[in-house]
Amino acid sequence: FTALLSDPSLVCSQAFVGGKWVDAASGETFDVTNPARGDVIARIPDLSREEVAEAIAVADRARHAWAAKTGKERAAVLRKWFDLMMANQEDLAIIMTAEQGKPLAESRAEIAYGAGFIEWFGEEAKRIYGETIPGHQPDKRITVLRQPIGVAAGITPWNFPNAMITRKVAPALAAGCSFVIRPASQTPLSALAMAKIAEEAGVPAGVFSVVTSTSASEIGREFCENPKVRKLTFTGSTEVGRILLRQAADQVMKCSMELGGNAPFIVFDDAEIDAAVQGAIMCKFRNNGQTCVCANRIYVQDAVYDTFAEKLKAEVEKLSVGDGLDDGTQLGPLIEPAAIKKVREHLQDALDKGAKILTGGEAHPLGEQFFQPTVVTEANQQMKVATEETFGPFAPLFRFKDEDEVIELANDTIFGLASYFYAKDLSRVVKVQEALEYGIVGVNTGIISTEVAPFGGVKQSGLGREGSRHGIEDYLELKYICTSV
Ligand code: ADP
């Protein structure tokens, strides 16, 4: 794939620590493979816990000078970083598809989306306003400052190798924090390419480091136990989020958690059915179902169930599966064999409990990491897919009778990230959007992600919000100053 790049130097095979490109002292590396072809595309340093501690020490030294800059100065650096990301959009997209598998069109969109956080929070850097409060006694003056929290550490997954990092690092840097990221070991190349561009944009040495390692739990421990780290930000499964929260408790560390979802996608009988079908396709099959906001349970009201199912089947059968680097591919491979195993497990469990295959249901002839996009009807709440996130191209259609029933079914989960519904009746729309216990509700749309809105979950889907003016709060502390005059 390097032959496709205008700037092959964006493929970096060293970690980026304290402004230097480094190998592991042990000489250990790990392989990055292209999920569509299975070939090794890079060997990346497998850093030790001690080397990650060093990255934290450098971040701690670098943060003071960075925080002392004016918001405008930090904004200028972030703006440059954004501009360079966009100037290199095509190369960054190719690198992403090569390591992650998503179709090139989706990778391009993710680079623009990811860079959007850098642009947005760069602008916010100038607007970290404090407060004055009328004193409680005649001699008292009360001022509230919002100051950077300190060194922030992040752990991110492989499904959005660029945007999951920028939505953390951009607000951190805008606030005046330094940041150490440990990207998923399946997709470090996107993170390293981003670091190379950050360096070129003038992000000072040590303010942003990328530590690559396969020892996720060791690095997680270092992030939680190192007293120099004041903030942990994580995107991944609820299971790992719980482990990290427990570990972070010893230091009473501030945590932001973007965890699993189990998104309901509801189609009411007054919905525009064609629009709902299109929304379901985008919401369910984007990134081949590997997003935490993908529809997991599709609830369709009785009267429109058969029509919706037929139309969805027709659209799903048009989706072209292939190597993300090939023109026209709409669904790439899944990230690894374990992902296919989970899709099969959910499908088999559903079939055992009465579901019927409408389309798909088989491995794809392209290879072991490909699966046919699959729709089943007659799904019910006893099936695994009703409670667990599939993270793959499997769309189960549940049938429901009325609003109250579907609201109860939709909310019957430990998760609360994204939810969607299609309806036209105004009273119904207002009632349902208010009743869904989710951090995000898409009404008559299947696509909700943008840097200008607060993304995050309730219940066991997480803590904190990323994006919008709220996204910077996770990297700031309030300081109340009481002055007697
Ligand atoms: P996913 O299914 O998206 O891989 P995970 O929660 O397993 O979700 O992984 C998300 C990120 O967390 C990945 O970068 C992974 O390597 C990392 N990770 C996994 N286990 C741990 C752990 N015990 N401590 C810290 N990070 C972990």
UniProtKB/TrEMBL annotation:
Domain of life of the native organism: Bacteria
Keyword terms: Oxidoreductase
Catalytic residue list: 258
GO molecular function: succinate-semialdehyde dehydrogenase (NAD+) activity
Biological process annotations from GO: gamma-aminobutyric acid catabolic process
Record flagged with keyword Oxidoreductase: yes
Protein name in UniProt: Succinate-semialdehyde dehdyrogenase
Species per Swiss-Prot/TrEMBL record: Oceanicola granulosus (strain ATCC BAA-861 / DSM 15982 / KCTC 12143 / HTCC2516)
Lineage of the organism: Bacteria, Pseudomonadati, Pseudomonadota, Alphaproteobacteria, Rhodobacterales
